[in-house]
User: What shape does this take?
Amino acid sequence: MNVTTKIGVLVASALAISLLVQVFYLFPEIRSREFGLQRVRNQAAADSIASEVRELQDSIRYGLERLAGMPMIRSMDANQQEAVLSIATGAWPGFATVSVGVADVHGTVTCLKSRGRAAVAAEGGAAGVDISERDYFRRCVSTSEVYYSDPFQDDVAGLTVAAISAPIRGDDGTTIGVIFAEIPLETMTGVIESYPLDEFEGVYMVDREGVVIAHSAKDLTELHGGPLSMDYSEYSVVQDLAGGRSGVREYEYDGKTYLASYMVVGASGWGIVFQEPLDIIMAKSNILPNFIFGISAAMFVTGVLVALVFARQIANPIRKLVEYARKVERGDYKAGLEVRGRDEIADVSSAIKSMVQQMVSMQEKELAAIVNSMKDGLITLDGKRRITRLNHSMEQMLGVKTADVLNKSPSELESDPRLLPLARLVQTESPEEEVVLTEPYERVVKVHSSELRGGEDKGVGEVKVVLDVTKEAELDQMKSDFIANTSHELRTPLHSIRGFVRLMLDGKVRDAETQREFLGIIDEQSQHLSNLVSGILDTAAMGTGEMIFERQPVTMNEVIEKAVVKLRNMAEDKEVAIEADAPRTLPTIEGDPEKLEQVVTNLVHNAIKFSQKGGKVVVTASAENRSLVVQVIDQGSGIPAGAIPLVFQKFYKVHGSMPWGGGGTGLGLYIVKQIVEAHGGQIWVKSKRGEGSTFGFRLPLSDDHENQEEGG
Ligand code: ADP
Assistant: This one.
């Protein structure tokens, strides 16, 4: 469940709970109050109608009582009574039609005055009419109280009327007559017709006998042929009224339940019944709860919608943050994250973003430092084989700048001749491949390629480590050259020795002179072999650093002297003059006397060897610029210009410099150079073909001597 749904559900549940509380607790409460209000309203309606009818009756009663107390009425003189009644009926308030009459104690009408519809019919010959049998006369005389009659048909006036009668008392208090008023029933019931009723509400009025005298839903004269033909006396409500009780009661009629509010109308004993179907009352009582429920439901829907909108607004940045985190997890550190607003989520988002950026830049710095400290070259490529990084070693190796090649594809690199070597490295396919580069200078490199894997182990590029193996290749070459040379050099003298020995063993050389000559050659060749072997041993010792120098103060003229003495015989044999020009005052140097003697011997030996008969070899030594310089000068064959830079290399011999192969090892000058350099000195050669050579070396003077010199 995502955040949006969760918030939506949360708000919906809260609203639903409030709705349930309303439905189960509040609504029944409101409805029962509403129901109560409806009852009270109906009762009030019944009461109000009853009051109006009662007021009407009472106003007539009071009018009659006032007239009954008047002397002119009490005189029982028809003329006097007529004068009063004329005025009274004319001024009688409130009714269009009314008849007021007086009868003596025997029931004989003495005077009758009418107004409105009743007037014409009633007045003619009214005097003398006997009303002793009439209910309102009899009850009034017998009780000597005011009496309200039920409605009856007045045949004289042709109207349904109700009468009210009041006793006229003589001076002694005895009843001497009756004054009465007949009022048309419609005057009394008009209030019901004019009462504003709802569709389902109904009001009716009954007299003391339970006869309906007015009904809001019925036109009594038309429906039943006469207004007094509808008898409700059996109804419980009407029976209550007949017993003088007002109240509220539910009753069943025609399969429907009604609520009746009923009210007795004053002293007349009539009743007003206000009735309404119970379901309508219930429906009215439901209006308010339904309204509240409707509003609550609308608020519920609105609330949930608003909550969802808000939840989306909250959840959206969180979703973006999660997407960003996933991208970073997959290695996409350049992924963007848009931060909007200023809420807590925005704060968290920007904190995470800057954290990732800082981490990336720290990692980048660390990585750059590691990569750039590598001696080997490094190239990284993205998924489309475009260059994403070169380290310093790679830049130096190829003479290019990362900025010039960044994001370039192999085809783009190929189009630039300067970048061709890089293109060749980028295009290597196998995990390990050797490439010979010719630009910017010749070298052999080994390229190790491996795939770069990002998140979910997907290939995101390639990394190539480039090792410069030129030296190793050269070394290999040198080793094989060395072995080839050594074996060749060893084989030549061995062949010659074996050849001469075999000749002599076979007894083919008989004369002693030739034998001596051959033995001489064998001796010379074995000497050469011995030189060769010690030369090879020295060379090997030089290569492994095993040559030991025993340093001590050395007097150079002594060293030169020894070498010259050693070679004097050889010089004489070759008829070459040899001369040493080394002053005894030469300062000493720090070094190994034997090794230095080997140096001088070697140089002088070469000088004699390459001199012609009658030539001259001079060895000089002098101190100059805090160093001692020794030179061996000959007038021999000299060295061709092209060979001069090579003479100090291992096994190098100038081609054709000696009449036959037995001459030299090609190791002498190499060893000489190594010894001089081990003493901190330098060696050089100046030579011209046919004019002779000068080999010289310089050795630093010992500190002692410098101190002496400074002291002196
Ligand atoms: P080798 O034992 O063959 O003399 P070296 O290393 O001593 O070997 O000398 C290398 C080569 O240098 C010789 O073969 C020779 O051709 C040349 N060379 C050395 N010294 C002289 C010299 N004084 N005059 C002419 N050529 C020389």
In short: The longest helix spans residues 3-68. The first strand starts at residue 98 and ends at 104.
